[in-house]
Amino acid sequence: MGTYMEKAAHDWTDDSVRIIATPSMAAKSTYYYVQEVGHFRTLPTYFTERQHLNSFLIVYTLAGKGYLHYQGTTHELLPHHVFFIDCQEYQHYRTDKADLWEIAWVHFNGSSSRGYYEQFAKNGCPVISVGENSPIPGILAQLLLTNRQNDVRTEPLSSKHLVDLLTELLLVTNPREAAGSFLPAHIQRIVSELDKRFAEKMSLDQLASEHAMSKYHLLREYKKYTGYTPNEYLIHRRITYAKELLTYSEWTVAQIANQIGMDNVSHFINLFKQRVEMTPLAYRKKWQRIT
């Protein structure tokens, strides 16, 4: 970690709100936790320049205009724009002097904050535009309200609101078809086919040929919409079905391996252990006892 640096002009209206939180040890070890949260109506000289702060920052533009310089690029921030940044990296954000910026924001950390940030960052841009009906400003308002009251509920409720906020950010960065279906029709067809034929031996070349697609395009599109490569999806389906058979059937491990399309029992056992963190027999013993 480098040396912390911050320069700022704290230029905002008297009715602006800034709450600084001091998270408990329990919050730091368990929850997503608020470090600061607020609602600013900025004045003309407002800016922040910062680097090497152990925090993540989400800012939603309620009105006016602002600018963010981050990772070498300057972004214009208009109403319904949200940015999500890692404050370890250099950042500079400011109001437009002629169209004063109004923002809701939260500095936070904890739990899997970095994992959420890294998933969001795959979008390739720290700024996204959300619809007028987005729940994001409402979630930020709830975070602010929750942290005005300091009682036993504050930290778990803050964690809940942060998870809602982070989940919403990930959902809006994923592509959707105009008709409202998450999976495009051609990807849905491939998913359905793999669900039916997961026990068969199937190569990427074969799958691409059957669906009249380049294998490289198929690979990119499938990963983009499902989060898996086709091969990873097949393994996922095979392991999931193997769990069902281990729990509800009396078949041997070798029979189950054959049923899910894996001729090599040792390979099945090793693959299962890698994905489930226990052997098939250990899984059977645990889950048959529970059920």
List the helices and strands and how they pair.
Blueprint: E1 5-9, E2 17-20, H1 25-30, E3 32-41, E4 47-51, E5 56-63, E6 66-70, E7 73-77, E8 81-86, E9 91-95, E10 102-110, H2 113-121, E11 127-129, H3 136-148, H4 154-173, H5 185-197, H6 204-210, H7 215-226, H8 230-248, H9 253-259, H10 265-276, H11 280-290
Antiparallel strand pairs: 1-4, 2-3, 3-10, 4-9, 5-8, 5-10, 6-7, 6-9, 8-11
Helix pairs in contact: 2-4, 3-4, 8-11
InterPro entries: AraC-bd, Homeodomain-like_sf, HTH-like, HTH_AraC, HTH_AraC-typ_CS
Protein name: Helix-turn-helix domain-containing protein
Keywords: DNA-binding, Transcription, Transcription regulation
Describe the structure.
With 291 residues, the chain is α+β, with helices and mostly antiparallel strands. It folds into two domains: 5-173, Regulatory protein AraC (Jelly Rolls, Sandwich); 185-290, Orthogonal Bundle (Arc Repressor Mutant, subunit A), CATH 1.10.10.60. The chain contains eleven helices and eleven strands. The protein has helices at residues 25-30, 113-121, 136-148, 154-173, 185-197, 204-210, 215-226, 230-248, 253-259, 265-276, 280-290; strands spanning 5-9, 17-20, 32-41, 47-51, 56-63, 66-70, 73-77, 81-86, 91-95, 102-110, 127-129. It has a six-stranded antiparallel sheet with strand order 2-3-10-5-8-11. A five-stranded antiparallel sheet has the order 1-4-9-6-7, with no helix packed on it. Helix 2 runs parallel beside helix 4, helix 3 (136-148) runs antiparallel to helix 4 and helix 8 (230-248) crosses helix 11. The longest helix is centred in the middle third of the chain and has 20 residues, at 154-173. The protein is elongated and about 70 Å long. This is Helix-turn-helix domain-containing protein. Residues 188-286 form the HTH araC/xylS-type domain.
